[in-house]
Write a structure and sequence with these properties.
The complex is a heterodimer of chains A (113) and B (110). Chain A is mostly beta strands and 113 residues long. Chain A is 0% helix and 51% strand. In chain A, strands 2, 4, 5, 6, 9, 10 and 11 form a seven-stranded mixed beta sheet that branches. In chain A, strands 1-3-8-7 form a four-stranded antiparallel beta sheet, with no helix packed on it. In chain A, a hairpin with a 5-residue loop joins β7 and β8. In chain B, the strands form two sheets. In chain B, strands 2, 4, 5, 9, 10 and 11 form a six-stranded mixed beta sheet that branches. A five-stranded antiparallel beta sheet of chain B has the order 1-3-8-7-6, with no helix packed on it. Chain B is built from no helices and eleven strands. The chains are: A mainly beta (113), B mainly beta (110). At the A-B interface, β10 of A face β4, β5 and β10 of B.
Chain lengths: 113, 110
């Protein structure tokens, strides 16, 4: 059974049109992460929530925002997608901040047209 | 210089071969080392996790960490076509976020 579920698997959006990606988890983990992965590159951490505490990476553009309304759900909002934001977006969870066992979702592949 | 360097491949081997995948790193604070397997168009899944230097074996997979050389390896014995995937190394100091390598694409030919 899937434990970290991302919807949709594929998302096409127009240049500049706001888009929201969603992630849900059944593991009851405290920490939820959003990563951006471009083709043949390492996943790049955008931000994470430890419970309700939001932690933004220093180099994450302001265009990217996140919401975590409860333990199970976390959303990635891209306010004005540019062509350079086309990528696979990965959600992950871990029990604690040590992150030694992070569980990833299947990812959402975002295309910007 | 990237904190974690990983040969991107692609690497092709015949079925049954022993595969060696490697990463080097520059941050001596890294203590926890992981290998993830990522199939095409899927999210990464954790394969192996080791703490500090040493070896860890799990079935056909062996992870090695040499902190003195800042070098980690993943060995796959008796490789199978189902092992064809991208393998990502990842590491972290205590209580910090993961730093990933860029991944090595492996194809095991039947």
């Amino acid at each position: 059974d899937a434990m970290v579920i991302q919807n949709p698997r594929y998302q096409v959006t127009q240049f500049g049109k706001p888009v929201t990606l969603s992630c849900s988890q059944t593991l009851n983990h405290n920490v939820m992460y959003w990563y951006q992965q471009k083709s043949s590159q390492a996943p790049k951490l955008l931000f994470h929530y430890y419970d309700k505490d939001f932690n933004n990476e220093a180099d994450t553009p302001d265009n990217f925002q996140s919401r975590r309304p409860n333990t199970s759900f976390c959303f990635l909002d891209i306010r004005s997608p540019g062509l350079g934001d086309a990528a696979m977006y990965l959600c992950a969870t871990s029990m604690g901040i040590m992150n030694t066992e992070a569980f990833f979702g299947q990812g959402t592949r975002l295309t910007v047209v | 210089q990237k904190e974690v360097e990983q040969d991107p491949g692609p690497l092709s081997v015949p079925e049954g071969a022993i595969v060696s995948l490697n990463c080097t790193y520059s941050n001596s604070a890294f203590q926890y080392f992981m290998w993830y397997r990522q199939y095409s168009r899927k999210g990464p899944e954790l394969l192996m996790y080791t703490y500090s230097s040493g070896n860890k074996e799990d079935g056909r997979f062996t992870a090695q960490v040499d902190k003195s050389s800042k070098y980690i390896s993943l060995f796959i014995r008796d490789s199978q076509p189902s092992d064809s995937a991208t393998y990502l190394c990842a590491m972290t100091p205590s209580a910090r976020q993961l730093t990933f390598g860029s991944g090595t694409q492996l194809t095991v030919l039947p």
